[in-house]
Design brief:
The chain is mostly helical. It is globular and about 85 Å long.
Length: 362
């Protein structure tokens, strides 16, 4: 190997490294745009069955079918926003006029009742709590500021929302748009296989995301009924938040349980703990556990088996690995990402024994 060949190899390696760094930096700078495209892709997959129904069953033309579908999705989004905005504004106004000392007194009273009921209180513990002034040092005034900041963030998201809806419209209208863009980078002899893979991925993920919507809807209805039966304030909003948290596998239900427990206990601050707060909270949490059992043993298995056609153990391992690698985001995207990889492997490496075992149900 001559010095010229060696130097050319080094320069080529440096050029590749610099190019890779520049590409990664560029992708980092446009990460928000990539996020918009990804969210728009999910929206289009959810709306795809509606568009196909309007085209095939009701004989709508492409543009009208997409417009009707987008109006339906926007209507659902507006309904969700209309559900939360008045609550946030009302709570912000209430908190701005709130007697902070009265709130702290109520929290101390609730704490005292809990410790007395379970028999874990003592004069020493009570004295240490009073001496530490834990509750007195809590600054509840941060809550109104947090709500005001949250409303400001919602306002800044308007551009992102418009971008997502705009991209999703064209994904639905020109379903081959993304596919044609990929074909530019694919050799001609691989195009037919890739097209087949993309069609399969669309069908599987559409069923998966629609199944998730129904999963959230079932939990939302069930939680709402439970909370309304026991007279918990803001039952609809609490039920929606707890149902929505189920999108985060395994961790989401735990967070939702803590949220429901906390909001149920604090909905009657000042009431007697043993005769009012504890029974109501216990019944609500029993209802929450029943909802989770129905979801874990009925809803989720049907969604995974009929949509992505994967064994529950596969799904569990994939979600855990996704969480270890990329955190909460990895847990959310693990199943659709794994499904897409399986479809592509089956199309391009169908002769491999491991691939055959993993994709035998596809």
């Amino acid at each position: 190997m001559t010095s010229k060949t060696l130097s050319e190899g080094i320069l080529r390696a440096i050029a590749i490294l610099i190019g890779t760094v520049l590409v990664l930096y560029f992708l980092y700078q446009i990460s928000s745009v990539i996020a918009y495209i990804a969210i728009a892709g999910v929206v289009s997959l959810i709306g795809r069955p509606i568009v196909l129904f309007l085209r095939r069953k009701l004989k709508f033309n492409d543009t009208i079918a997409v417009i009707v579908t987008m109006l339906m999705l926007i209507g659902i989004l507006v309904g969700i926003i209309a559900l939360f905005i008045p609550l946030i504004v009302q709570q912000g106004q209430n908190l701005s006029l709130l007697n902070i000392e009265a709130l702290q007194g109520n929290m101390e009273n609730l704490y005292r009742q809990i410790t007395e009921y379970f028999g874990v209180s003592s004069s020493e513990i009570e004295q240490s709590v009073k001496d530490s002034k834990i509750l007195a040092n809590l600054d509840f005034g941060f809550v109104p500021n947090f709500l005001n900041s949250f409303i400001g963030i919602l306002g800044s998201l308007s551009i992102g929302l418009f971008s997502v809806l705009f991209i999703a419209f064209f994904f639905l209208k020109d379903s081959k748009l993304f596919e044609d863009g990929l074909m530019v980078f694919i050799p001609d002899n691989k195009e037919s296989r890739l097209k087949k893979s993309i069609d399969t991925i669309k069908d599987l993920l559409s069923r998966y995301f629609v199944g998730l919507v129904f999963q959230i809807l079932i939990l939302f209805i069930f939680y709402t009924i439970v909370l309304l039966i026991f007279g918990v304030e803001n039952a609809i909003v609490i039920a929606f938040l707890c149902a929505l948290l189920n999108l985060i596998p395994y961790v989401g239900p735990l967070i939702g349980g803590v949220l429901m427990l906390t909001l149920t206990m604090t909905s009657n601050i000042g009431a007697d703990f043993s005769s009012v707060i504890l029974p109501k909270t216990s019944y609500v949490m029993i209802g929450f556990l029943i909802g989770q059992l129905v979801d874990n043993f009925i809803s989720q298995p049907r969604i995974f088996s009929q949509s992505v056609k994967s064994h529950p153990l596969e799904i569990f391992l994939v979600i855990i690995i996704g969480g270890l690698l990329f955190g909460i985001t990895g847990m959310i995207i693990a199943v659709p990402g794994y499904t897409a990889i399986k479809v592509i492997l089956k199309e391009f490496l169908s002769e491999n024994k491991i691939v055959q075992s993993l994709t035998k149900n596809l």
